[in-house]
Amino acid sequence: MPPSETFEPRIAAFFCNWCTYGGADLAGVSRLQYPPNIRAVRIPCTGRMNPNFILQAFRLGADGVWVSGCHPGDCHYIAGNMFARRRFAVMKRLLEYVGLEPDRLQFSWISSAEASKFQQTVTEVTAAVKALGPARFLRKDLAEVA
Amino acid sequence: MRNTYIPYPVRIKDTRVETEDKQLKSFWLEFMNPADADAFAYTPGQFAELSVSGYGEIPIGIASSPTEGQDLLFTVNKVGVVSNRLHNMKAGDVMGVRGPLGNSYPLKASEGKNIVIVAGGFAVTTLRSTMIWLLDPANRAKYGEITFIYGARTPGMLLYTDEWTSWQQSGQANVNVTIDREAPGWTGLVGFVPSVTEQVAPKPDNAVALICGPPVMIKFTQPVFDKLGWKPEQIVMSLENRMKCGIGICGRCNVGPEYVCKDGPVFTKAQLDKLPREY
Amino acid sequence: MDNQAIAQKIREVAKKLLSEGKVDVVIGYAQGSVPMRDYPYFAYTPEEAENLTWSGFCNSNLANFTIRRPGRMAVVAQGCVTRNLVGLIKENQLKRENLFVIGVASPGMLDRNKVQAAFPGKLITSVQEDGADLVVTGRGFAERLPRKRFMKDNCYTCVQRNPVICDELIGEESEPTHGGDIDKVAAPWEKLAAGERWAEFQETFKDCIRCYACRDACPLCYCHVCFVDESQPQWCGKTQDEADVATFHILRAFHCAGRCTDCGACEAACPQGIKMRRLTSKIEKDIRELYGYRPGMSLEQEPPLVVYRPNDPQDFIK
Amino acid sequence: MANKILAKDQLGAFVDKLKAGREVFAPALVGDKVVWSPLDSAEGLLLDFSNTDLSPKDFFFPQTECMMRFANDAKAPDGMIMQAEPELKTPRALMNIRPCDAKAMQVLDLIFIQDQMTNDAYWRDKREKTLLIGLACNDPCPTCFCTSVNCGPHHEVGLDLLLVDLGDRFLVKVISQRGAEAAAGLPEAGAAEEVQAAELKAKAEAMITEGVGMDNVNAREVMELYEAPLWDRVQENCLNCGTCTFCCPTCHCFDIQDEVQGTDGRRVRNWDYCMSWLFTMHGTGHNPRGTKKDRVRQRFMHKFKYIPMKRGGEIGCVGCGRCVQLCPVNIDVRRVVNQMNG
What we know:
The structure holds four protein chains of four kinds.
Chain A: H1 3-6, E1 11-16, H2 20-29, E2 38-43, H3 51-59, E3 64-69, H4 80-97, E4 105-109, H5 115-132
Parallel strand pairs in A: 1-2, 1-3, 3-4
Helix pairs in contact in A: 2-5
Chain B: E1 8-17, E2 24-31, H1 34-39, E3 47-52, E4 56-61, E5 72-77, H2 81-87, E6 94-101, E7 114-120, H3 125-135, H4 137-140, E8 146-152, H5 161-170, E9 174-179, E10 189-190, H6 193-200, E11 207-212, H7 215-227, E12 235-238, E13 254-255, E14 258-259, E15 266-268, H8 269-272
Helix pairs in contact in B: 6-7
Chain D: E1 4-7, H1 11-19, E2 23-30, E3 33-38, E4 64-71, E5 83-84, E6 92-97, H2 99-112, H3 121-128, E7 130-135, E8 161-165, E9 169-174, H4 177-182, H5 191-207, H6 215-219, H7 222-226, H8 230-234, H9 243-247, E10 254-261, E11 264-271, H10 292-310, H11 322-326, H12 333-341
Parallel strand pairs in D: 2-6, 6-7, 7-8
Antiparallel strand pairs in D: 1-9, 2-3, 4-5, 4-11, 8-9, 10-11
């Protein structure tokens, strides 16, 4: 088997408490099947998403990072996701500029009612990261460094 | 020659939460290799670097006395990365100890003298070591009167209560324990350490004072001793500064030319008067 | 006006401000003890103002010294420095009423590393600006070279040589640009294949010694606690390993997003001659493309990352 | 020990002999910078240079150095117990090190190795296994001030051999037993060559005109220097960056950190610098050197007052002038020390 088929990626998933986290719950109670590769971290709003979190996830060995929040207009705090959108755009472009494969950093808007979108997105994100193989980006392998 | 950066492996033998706010916890440590215990020959006032693999090291005063056997006692305040991790560790866990480091209280030089010990808060650790050492039958006769002054915020914040109670009862030392404010059920002294020191009024004749406490306590206790006629050479203080190497190289703990980790942590007031107040 | 005339005028203005008590200090430059290194100087008295100077090697961004500084101050400022002053005012680190801007149209500042690189391994004892030329003298040589060749990279593509805010302009306004096109040089790794970018990034920053001179010279980096100094959690390792060096530079660049005026103080301060603008110019370019914003050009326009529009680009979001 | 002669056309043989069983490093021109690089053969040897931008202390005290490793797994045998890193396997030789840098290593010896406890195994190991072959400075820079800080352009302390460039040949000053072994087989120097080398030394020393005065610094009490008003102005333009300390051959402060990734763990030390507020910050939030002024003062006081007090008059500065050249805001150590002395 090629490595991409045996490799199981670890994906750090940051979910807004008010939408995607609920969407994940709904997917669960609706018994929708999705790949178990994500490690969900609940955040109060995508506006809370510090870019440090993204780098820290890669540093600590994540193969992909996925951030998901409320659709524009639906933010519990009125506009947290709108501010976040600008930061994410700049951050994503910057990380791709220094060599991060675009598929390793993913963003989505998923409401708490969209269980099937949640299921579909997890599947897509996992497949995309899996295809890339293990991440080296910012990961420090202690056995290799002097 | 031994690599003095490598900690001796030790096992946590026992732990105890010491104070009501759960910020202070004591750890009894046992050397995993008996030879290391022999190499770790210490005297009261010295400290050691506690090493928690994956988190780092912290310099902590040794609270046990060598007269108590080979196990080591440390009482640790929960403030940073290492101490937070340490508070979550339990008996049986493996960690490391590096030392003993620094100088000690001038106990040898103080033979034949009266000893006054002033402690504030959890700085009592190395002074517990000193008290146990002084009260040991092999040592007690070499010293005159021993006065122990110790203060904490509340009764629940006092460390080693069983021990200082027994010192009090044995009559081998004049024990004065105080809390900052009146508290229900507390029948002992009330007031800050400097004012209690003033009440106790230890005499400077043929005496030495060993002081360890937070900077604010030291700041206000010094003038009391001055007023009582003590000379700077008689007042001995233990400092603490941020440290890494613990052996006088890495450069962060120095107060003027003196490294707190190597030349200290114990200094006389006469020494400190000539140094910048970078502590 | 030549440098001597500008320096003379700066001294006159500074003396006037100090003797009339209009400011407590004039922050300008004094001549360094080594060639090509004029340094930030604080003149508190008219006598001290005599030490002020001006040259193409006045490369520290003086806005850096105004941050949270008490009292009234005058600052010698080129275009980019005034843009940083504007940014600091907008970010509430500086009050306009405490600030007197002694504006100077930037002649295009000079890059000491470029001058040194023209004489590899040789000792340079003096560098003089003479009109359009630079006269470089060293042990066993003296050469006259075109000044323009040694300008800092960011100065070629500068679009704001004249002060944005100014209380007294020294000399005259100049052409707003040096003629370079930022879009031709910004974000140089964009044209590389994805796989080559990381290697280029590593190569550019491989000499970094983590001295943080770039951060400390930058007028944007005024956080009380920088993220590299945080320990709980620790965002960035302290080692020389490439992952740690990269983390530092990526996050520092990101923290300057929508704020960086491309003044080049980081590159000028770097003891290792690292070209950080290869990284920061990417963000500067993106902010311009995505949100049509150039930092520090006006006191009114809101910074791009504290506002949003309903129709901001989101093609990257599923 | 008798001095020797090394003809330049014999350099190849000399370097080859040096390379037997050793890794040899020397300053080389890489791009437009002079940096320490592995030396393949005598052809790559740079003789016309002032000095490297960064000091060679990195060979003995690397900026990042793994001190020990552990298995980050409490259940593994010896899990969580620190194991020392292996020692340096291949001995080294540093060729064409400048006398100031060699002197700096000798000053650092006094700090890294003091007694049984203060005895840096990592430093000691690398020092013991490294041969230092100096190249005397015949053309000191205007920023050099070695002659005023117990050093000089032809200073021999800390070296095993010192090469003096006489044009077509080197006078090889044999300083240590190890050096004598490396120079064995070379012809002995004649009186004329010794005279020529002495003339070059006198000429080089005469070229260093700016220096620092230390008499009053030595005579004054710590607190007098500490409380002197000069610090208010010295600190003004300082950025509190680490450039001066990291390029300095005698700055030796470090930080120790633990790192883990999966089941691998290590304890690593990194250069640290007294200009950083974090350097002295207590866990409680109290900072003994809380202001920029405290930190700037510390660096100069440490080098020019504290180290001389503690190390028998040795100064924590060798006058290499790197900080003078590299400080982004031109804080010139000579100016500062002369103010302390003034």
